[in-house]
Amino acid sequence: MKALSIAPYEGLKELIIELGRNQDFEIHVEVGDLEKGVELASRAADQGFDIIISRGGTAELIQKKVSIPVIEIEVSGYDMLRVLTLVRDYPGKAAIVGFPPISEGAATVSQLLEMDISHYVISKEEEVKPTLKQLLEEGYEVIIGDVITVKEAENLGLNGILITSGKESILKAFQSAKKMHNYFSILRGKLSIAQQILQVEEEGFVVFDTTFNHVYSNTYFTEQLSKTFKASIKTEDAVTEVMAKGEYTTLIENNNVFWKVKGTQLQGFEISLVLFRLQRVESNHKRLSDGINIISSLMNSSPIKSSFIKSNQMKMVIQTAEKYSEKEESIWISGEKGTGKEKLAHYIHYRSSKRAFPLVTINCSLLTAEQWNLLLNEEEGLLASNDNGTIFLKSIDSIALSNQKELLSYLKKNNPKSRMIVSSSENILTMIESGVFLNDLYYLLAQLTLSIPPLSKRKEDIDHIARIFINESNTKYGKQIAGIRNEAIEELENYSWPGNITQLKQVINETVLLADGPFIEREDINYILKTKVKETEMTQLDLTGTLEEIEHRIIRQVWLEEGMNQTKTAERLGINRTTLWRKLKEL
Q1: Confidence class of residue 37 from pLDDT cuts 50, 70 and 90?
Q2: Are the CB atoms for 58 and 148 separated by under 8 Å?
Q3: H/E element holding 159?
Q4: Which residues on neighbouring strands pair with residue 361, listed in sequence order?
Q5: What pLDDT is attached to residue 288?
Q6: What is the 8-class DSSP label of residue 221?
Q7: Is the backbone of residue 352 left (phi > 0), alpha (psi -120 to 50) or beta?
Q8: Of 448, 445, 458, which Cα lies nearest the Cα of 501?
Q9: DSSP state, residue 285
Q10: Has residue 446 got a pLDDT over 90?
């Protein structure tokens, strides 16, 4: 064992050197108090030291800064007794001043000896000088304390009495150091065995101690998952939760693969250790879907700016959402497409105590039957892996009836701990009456409800929202649009907005891109809105003509709605891409 001892005062250094000659380990001694001691200790690991030995506040500061074990030389009752006996018959006023380990211990001994000595506890170095100045004004002559206190007392002309550590305290520290080193040697041996076993695992394992120092990780974690873990999880909070509650679970995403992170406390060690195990959510390395998105706790930000909301109707929605945010009940958000249901779901999550855990958004309209099976897998599925966070089922009204039944069965059987938020665009009660949506599933997930009004019912918000979008588009395109004319705002307010806020953003985006002047004019808005009116007319389904002609119109409409993306169009129509390609050629 190679030990570095950092002594706060010269006399302690000499005593450690003397007693260290008879020890069976190598010991080097330096003198440094508080920050100077920390500076010396910070280089210890690189210099090959296994352990650090120091005293009082210096030892406490060092432990916070280094990863190797720190053993404290205690100020024993014998040490206190020696100093207090020395000043017992001193006729002047005396006070004990220092950090808690020294000042509180000395005060206890003085009470046992029935000595009338005041004591003052300081928590940081900056408090020493003001405290001593006050004592000087009150007529105190002798200050008993640690190194920093005695030095400052002597600078002020007071008599400083240092509480020194005796031989018995140093020898006890030597014994503790040897025990700690032996323990860590055993631990390193155990970890060596574990490491050999775990290197072949395609799962991540990482271990921290309770001071958040990285103790161990397997190769797969280091090479594949370390960066994602650090970017997604605040280690201090995760370790603290394991120590307080016994476990910690969350989700992270790495290269489109979802990982369940489970934290547990390791047993059988002299110091507390926390293990985090990272397991793939889905088996056989299958990706669930691009329609699933995980936003980690370290990426959170509220997407709704309530100060820009003028509509009383929408203000009520936000106020209700804020009240719902701290409830555990599931929340159903309804509203037309483009009204901002997903943003409201985000707002609820980040207003709640669950904001420290992931928000998992699942776009129900994009999942296949196979992907739903993976999602609902009881042991490995995504819904079983986010106990502390929020699951947002977007566009739940698009789920096939068979998958609704599976989801209902899963929820009733497993009762997930995660809070559920869902959204729908269609009139869900009409769908229930028509038999295309399960009544039981709706009432299970709609314990609390929110309805977002369409943009046409909150036109007083258009001005403010438009200006936000102008700023975003300026940034996107490098434009310098300074504002929008009142006449242009009137045109926006007079439009029906079938696509709601999503469509408003699209209009502003296109207008900013095409505008030539510093302000958006009425003519700019009118030009863009005319194209939107034509698009709206195109979406009005014409049922005249033959079945083949109607089919062609439906295919073309879906194709345009999906941005002319053939893969998404084929999935939505339930046909393969070859069939879609052939039918598009016939248009």
Answers
A1: confident
A2: no
A3: strand 159-162
A4: 293, 392
A5: 53
A6: I
A7: beta
A8: 458
A9: G
A10: yes
- The confidence score (pLDDT) of residue 113 equals 76
Scored b (16 or more CB within 10 A) or e, 271-297 reads eebbbbbbebbbeeeeebbebbebbbb
Residue 306 DSSP code:
G
Residues 376-419: tens digit of each pLDDT: 876 666 777 777 889 999 999 988 888 899 999 999 988 888 89
For 328, phi then psi, to 5°, come to -90, -15
- Contact (CB, 8 A) for 362 and 375: yes
SS3 of 562, please?
coil
What whole-number distance in Å separates Cα of residue 334 and Cα of residue 339?
9
Over the stretch 328-366, which tens digit does the pLDDT of each residue have?
A: 999 999 999 999 999 999 999 989 988 888 898 999 888
User: Which tokens sit at 255?
Assistant: 């290269």
Provide the pLDDT confidence category of residue 277 given band limits of 50, 70 and 90.
very high
Q: Which residues contact 78 (CB under 8 A, 6 or more apart)?
A: 166, 168, 169
Could you tell me if 257 and 225 are in contact, meaning their C-beta atoms sit under 8 angstroms apart? no
CA–CA gap between residue 501 and residue 344 (Å, rounded): 13
pLDDT digit string, tens, across residues 493-521: 999 898 899 999 999 999 998 888 899 99
Name the amino acid, one letter, at 305. Answer: K
User: Residue 434: which residues within 8 A CB-CB, separation 6 or more?
Assistant: none
Bridge partners (DSSP) listed for residue 295: 359
Q: Residue 302: pLDDT above 60? A: no
- Residue 109 identity (one-letter amino acid): V
In angstroms and rounded to an integer, the radius of gyration of the C-alpha atoms of the chain is: 35
Under the phi-then-psi rule, with left for phi > 0, alpha for psi from -120 to 50, and beta for the rest, what region is 76?
beta
Find out whether 333 and 452 touch, Cβ atoms under 8 Å.
Answer: yes
Residue 518 DSSP symbol: S
For residues 349 and 309, the answer to whether their CB atoms sit within 8 Å is: no
Q: What are phi and psi of 70, to 5 degrees?
A: -120, 125
Q: Which two tokens stand for residue 84?
A: 């207090």
**Residue 112 pLDDT exceeds 80:** no
Burial profile 117-134: b = 16 or more Cβ within 10 angstroms, e = fewer: bebbebeebeebeebbee
Q: How far apart are CA 459 and CA 501, in angstroms?
A: 11
**Residues 42, 43, 48, 52: is their CA dihedral positive or negative?**
negative
Q: What is the largest CA-CA distance in the chain?
A: 116
Determine contact, residues 361/383, Cβ cutoff 8 Å: no
- The closest alpha carbon to 392, from 371, 418, 356, belongs to 418
Residue 484: how many CA atoms within 13 Å on its side-chain side? 27
d(CA 195, CA 229): 19
CA separation for the pair 331, 323 (Å, rounded)? 12
Contact 274, 215 (CB under 8 A): no
Residues constituting the chain: 587
Mean pLDDT along residues 103-110: 75
